[in-house]
Every structure is written in C-alpha cells, then in structure tokens.
Design a protein that fits this description.
alpha/beta; Aminopeptidase; disordered N terminus; TAT_signal
C-alpha cells in the first residue's frame, strides 16, 4: 500500500470494527475444503534446495549474468517435468552498479571517507573519478551544480490498517491481535524527493538518508522500481546522515560522489512460459506466475513455489485437470515499467495468451519470519512470529470465497485475505488483476524484503512455512481447475 493510515490515526476500536465489518460480510455457500487427490507436493527439502540454488548464485539484478543463469536453470527444471518451455524476449534498459563511494571535505579542509549503505538503484552514473559539488539540503533554494542531501522517510503504518481491505483472516482475531504491530516499510508511502525533479532544478547528484541504523540500512536496494532519471545518487544510514549535517552546520562541505554502472538501453530479457494441457472439460487456462529477478532469498523465492506446483500438476492425472495450466516467469519486477516490459504490458502484447486466462495465482515472498524494529530508527530484531501473509484477491467475489474457504481448511496461521488497494494487488499479481482476470496472490512484506546481504537473508526464512504456503496455493489451484463459476475466456 502506498498511502496508508499513520500509526497515530488507528485506534484499537477502529481496527476491530473495521476487521469485523469485513469478516462479517463473508458468506461461503457451496464452498468446502478441497479433497485430497492422492498426489503429494515435493517435500520441503526439495523445494528449499531450489531457494538455496537461487541464493547461492548471488543477487539476480534485472538482466545481470546471475539473473540470466537463474532463468536458464528454471527453464531447464520445467523441461525436466516434461513441460516444453517457450522464451519471449522483451526489451530492457539494463543498469547494474559497479562501484560507489562518497568522500567529503569539511569547512576546515579535512577529508573524510563516508561509509555508504548502498547505491540508489538506477539513479544515474558518474565518471570513474566521480563528480564533485557542494552539499546542500533538498529544501535549499537553488541546487544548481550541487549534490543534494535528502531524507528518505518511511510512512508510519500498523498492521491494523489492513482492516480497511480485510475479507477474512486466520485466525479470525488476527487484526485485533496484531493491531499495533509496526508494518512501516521502506518501499511504502513517501520516498523522498524525485531524482528527476532535482536534476531538472540543476542538481548534479544526490545522497539519500535512510531512517535506519548502519546494520539495517546496509544493502537496501530501494526504490527498486526507480526510473532511469540520470542523477547519480547514494544511500546513507541515519548515523552518517547526521554526521554530514553536523559538518554542514560548521560551514560549506564539498562532496565527491562516485557511482559507476554497466548500462545497455537496448538489452533484452526473457519471459518463460510453459503450458500443461488439461482434459478440455472446461474452457480457458489458469495462470501460475511469479518473477525471476530479485536480490535475496525472499525476493524472489516464488519461483521455487512455481516449480513445486508445476511438478505437482504434471503428476496429477489429466482426468483431474479440467483446464489448461500456464506457468509464466516474468523477468522484470525489480525495475521501472519505463525500463522493461511488466506483466500487464506483456499480456497486452500477447492476446493469444491473455484471452485464454480465466484465473491467475501468483506466489511471492514465501516463508518470511517477522523482524521488527518497533518503529523507525531502532535496530531490527526477530519477534518469533511469522510475517503476516496477505492473500490478495481481485475481480471475483467467488474467488474470494474460495480463497477464504481453502484457508479455513488449511494449516496456515497469521494469514489475511484482502481486497485490492488503489488498483494494486500488492505485487506481480497487479498485471493480470488490471486486465480484469480473477487473480489471487500470496505475498508477505518483511523489513528485509529488498535488502542485499551476504547470505541473502536466507536465515530469516522458514522452509516449512514456505512449503505450507505453497501447499495451500496448490490446493487452491486444484480447486480452480474445475471451478464452474470462473468466467469464460474472451
């Protein structure tokens, strides 16, 4: 969500009232839990071996060598299940950082190397020797020829704010129990000044200050869908930001900012699609989709879930597959729509695929445990809970009922069924949702979602939880294969 209710605006009574209003309106006539079908999902160890394989290859920045190797591996795995894989090359403005640094000279002439938390993705590039200019605040009158210092704030948010979109939850008391849990996230709400605006005002670079301590600011790949605005920028933690501002209070500070990157405005990157025919009893196809790019073990481990589901359905007797299944892996979630072909545009370009789809299932960010700071500016810590999983549902009341009914019969905990928010279905599922396709996504949003770290934050994920979440989606998809209430294809 991008413009969520502030912490101070949510009361416990309002949360409870909103949640009960959403849950009380849910009726589930004719929906029972899906029956076992005798075919088992691959076990947790096999599924998690795919996540390990992905993470061991390093960050899969969009279009990078590591990303392309992962795409090739996924294609090979799908083919081992007997699925023919088709590649769809799409355009990409490729940008991948090489080196970055920040050095400042204070008013007394002393030179300081400033520890950089990370680079600002896709922001811009400098020559190898960097660019030099006086530091100025973003609120300053004229940034011409200067490097702008700007806060990257986080909009305060609590989990109770989800009451506004809640349909169902497990347990039913979830939004009351978790009402005041901090859900503030770096990628939600205001993200500081626009780089293009600063460039147009004459700035030559920018430094963003994250509201985190050094350990938690390190490696934050944000904003992950930053347009290529041509203004090189870096990110600092709060401690270093305060240090720079203290120096600026004693007189002019000059900075040399370096950010080199490999770029190619005419690159391409592949979508993968693999079809499993059904028995033809019902028209149309069910789309199972996620994305292949990402920078850690959670972003994006949905591909492991997709592999597990593809393997399962190839072993499910065709007599139990009334509809076709289409498995699609998108390559360009972690970059701006202006720099790549996102799923909505890809589906628009391929009506021979899009017009057959009667439902979509999108797994993302599975197995997440909760790490909470209890508010911005404090170090993260493990809470011992799982991160709330959102089952976002759009374009079909019947699908929402099926999602809730399947949840009731499942072993999932801390899971919320939610309506779309401001024409958005919380992630990669937004593409099929905006095309009017009945769509469900399973997605979590932990603090560490967009962070680059040495181990990919693999230690913060729970393989058994990811497996249970994938099993839920598999059972739901099985239900959709024969659902009589899904719309006819176009």
């Amino acid at each position: 969500m991008s413009d969520c209710t502030p912490l101070s605006a949510v009361s416990r009574r309002a949360v409870l009232g909103g949640a009960l209003a959403g849950l009380g309106g849910l009726a589930l006539p004719g929906f029972a839990a899906a029956a076992p079908d005798g075919v088992e999902l691959v076990d947790s160890d096999i599924m998690w071996s795919w996540v390990h394989r992905m993470t061991a290859g390093g960050p899969r920045f969009t279009g990078s060598d590591a990303h392309r190797r992962w795409i090739d591996y996924l294609a090979g795995e799908l083919e081992t299940f007997g699925l023919p894989v088709r590649r769809y090359p799409t355009t990409l403005k490729y940008w991948n950082a090489g080196s970055w640094a920040l050095t400042v000279t204070d008013a007394q002439g002393a030179v300081h190397d400033i520890p950089v938390a990370y680079y600002w993705p896709y922001s811009g590039t400098t020559p190898p020797q960097g660019i030099t200019g006086e530091l100025t605040e973003a609120t300053g009158a004229d940034p011409t020829g200067k490097i702008v210092l700007a806060d990257r704030p986080i909009t305060p948010l609590v989990a109770g704010a989800f009451a506004a979109v809640a349909i169902d939850a497990q347990p039913r008391s979830l939004l009351l129990d978790a009402a005041l849990e901090d859900s503030s996230r770096l990628w939600l709400g205001a993200q500081g000044p626009k780089l293009r605006d600063l460039r147009d005002r004459g700035a030559i670079g920018a430094v963003g200050i994250l509201p985190f301590d050094p350990a938690d600011a390190a490696g934050q790949f944000t904003p992950h869908q930053q347009p290529h605005d041509g203004l090189p920028a870096l990110l600092l933690d709060q401690l270093q930001g305060n240090r720079l501002r203290e120096s600026m209070r004693h007189g002019p500070v000059t900075a040399t900012l370096t950010l080199t990157a490999e770029t190619n405005d005419e690159a391409t990157i592949d979508y993968l699609a693999a079809e499993l025919p059904g028995n033809g009893s019902r028209a149309g196809a069910i789309l199972v989709m996620t994305h292949t790019d990402g920078q850690n073990a959670i972003e994006e481990n949905g591909a492991a879930a997709l592999l597990a589901m593809a393997d399962y359905f190839t072993r499910l007797p065709v007599a139990q597959r009334d509809r076709d299944l289409l498995f699609v892996l998108s390559p360009a979630h972690m970059t701006a729509p202006s720099s790549a072909v996102h799923p909505e545009a890809w589906l628009d370009h391929h009506p021979e695929i899009a017009d057959r789809l009667v439902a979509a299932v999108v797994p993302e960010h599975l197995g997440a445990t909760q790490w909470d700071a209890g508010g911005t500016g404090r170090a993260w810590h493990a809470t011992g809970k799982q991160e709330i999983l959102v089952l976002g549902v759009g374009n079909s009341a019947e699908l929402a009922q099926a999602v809730a009914a399947e949840l009731t019969g499942s072993d999932l905990d801390r899971t919320l069924v939610a309506r779309p928010y401001t024409d958005n279905l919380y992630g990669e599922a937004t593409g099929p949702y905006r095309r009017g396709i009945p769509t469900v996504t399973a997605i979590a949003g932990p603090n560490y979602l967009v962070r680059v770290s040495e181990n990919g934050d693999l230690d913060k994920l729970d393989p058994a939880l990811a497996h249970r979440q994938t099993r839920y989606l598999t059972r739901l998809t099985t239900r959709l294969l024969s659902a009589p209430w899904l719309p006819a294809p176009r």
